Automatic annotation (TrEMBL), chains A, B:
This is TrmH family RNA methyltransferase. Belongs to the class IV-like SAM-binding methyltransferase superfamily. RNA methyltransferase TrmH family. It comes from the Bacteria. It comes from Sphingomonas tabacisoli. Residues 32-108 form the RNA 2-O ribose methyltransferase substrate binding domain. GO terms for biological process: methylation.
């Protein structure tokens, strides 16, 4: 049954609004995703929201109808509300017409099946939610398995990261751990750990990468700690002809990931 | 001579603060860049600020000293101020300790030397300042000549775009024009226009690209208009194995630009 909420001070509205803060997301184990496109990607990846908010104008699209029906059928809470309340929930003036509340999707390393894909991304102390979401989107595009977050990374379930992932958040396995735990896990099975670095002469197109390849990307400002580079099976560098001698972290990850993919695909 | 400003209501502070708005940037032909790293990149690319703000704590670094001395020598206005006023200028709580005000750097197409580089990026209706800055940074890395903005793009001199470019804004030629004018200019000389598209079967690693290559990237949400795709000499697609079937615009540009670079470089 569809509930109707029109009051700003409604308890459900307040609670969902609070999911814009990491503290509340963590406590509730829930996060927000916005917009027909991302919610549809989620559904296609098998994820339905626990709560689905829509405004009257947003319900007309067949995909929106499908989401509403399926969310109800799965026992989710479907709520018709006003555009103003949607704006309040999303924190944007021009809100999306659909907002979903999802159970968070963190996987523990011992549940992660490394052989599910030949490409995995490992991010260390990544700080920008846009970069994190963009890396998830790239990982989806190259057929990667997912993203392993090491050390103190930005929350992958922040509204900005979810938005930048364009739905790839729901297709990708996401784990969060510490460096030592990651290395211990990695060395229990097959896997080549590749770091990009300026401290090597090996061009990134020279080695033949072995699957599963774990591409390690460092913090936006600091890059990888030296000790982490030493743990890598291989350090490679991308050509940089410019003066700035650096690439955006999500861009460097993508250039590397497409090289690994290109080595393996039939053309 | 170094001026000292400590008052929030100082006219210079107000004027520089107003450069955070596009309207004022356009009227004054000036923009803001922040932080020792970006200002140093600018200086190495031959650009000194017309005004340079620093707080006492930020002046100790030899590179900061160099900037202060050279800006004064070039007749720039060097201003020592407080961390609070720097925060006000930058709009961030945790402001950079150096802020420069630069003359904007738009080039007209008829002044652009297409043979200066084998790779150029052309962006159409790009809306995200982070993407724009990231594309400039990538263009710098691949030895590209610069960025041609077509139709209604985000302002390349916005604080966010300047920040994301990490200084590449100062190494790259930037032009802004309309589509018809761009095409007319392009066809007056050598140049291959390459669009990435889902409406083609040609893999992006199949063609040998001809220099100068103009890589055309479309709006984040809409992609390229069909008429623009038809004008391309070649449409190519990147493999996308995932469910989302899309890449971030700056990522797609980078993967494409590295392919062009890789075809040309000696390894």
């Amino acid at each position: 049954m569809i509930r109707h909420i029109t009051g700003f001070s409604n308890e459900t509205v307040k609670r969902v609004r609070s999911l814009r803060d990491k503290k509340h997301r963590k406590r509730e184990g829930l996060f927000l995703a916005e917009g027909l496109r991302i919610l549809t990607e989620a559904r296609e990846a098998g994820a339905l929201p626990e709560m689905l908010f829509f405004a009257h104008d947003g319900a007309g699209h067949p995909l929106a109808q499908g989401l509403i029906v399926e969310t109800e059928r799965a026992g989710g809470d479907v709520i018709e509300t006003t555009p103003d309340i949607l704006s309040k929930l999303s924190g944007k003036d021009n809100a999306q017409t659909l907002i979903g509340v999802y159970r968070d999707r963190l996987t523990s390393l011992d549940q992660l099946n490394r052989n599910a894909s030949g490409i995995w991304i490992v991010a260390q102390a990544l700080r920008d939610p846009g970069n994190l979401g963009t890396i998830l989107r790239t990982s989806d595009a190259v057929g990667g398995g997912g993203l392993i977050l090491v050390d103190d990374c930005v929350d992958p379930f922040s509204v900005e990261a979810v938005r930048a992932s364009m739905g790839a958040l729901f297709t990708q396995t996401i784990a969060a751990t510490r460096w030592d735990s990651f290395v211990a896990w990695l060395r229990q099975g097959p896997g080549q750990l590749i770091g990009t670095s300026l401290r090597t002469e090996i061009d990134y197109q020279t080695p033949r990468y072995e699957a599963p390849t774990f591409i390690l990307v460092g913090n936006e400002a600091q890059g990888l700690p030296a000790a982490y580079e030493q743990e890598c099976d291989l350090l490679v560098k991308m050509p940089m002809l410019g003066k700035a001698d650096s690439l955006n972290a999500a861009v460097a990850t993508a250039v590397m990931a497409y090289e690994v993919l290109n080595q393996r695909r039939a053309r």
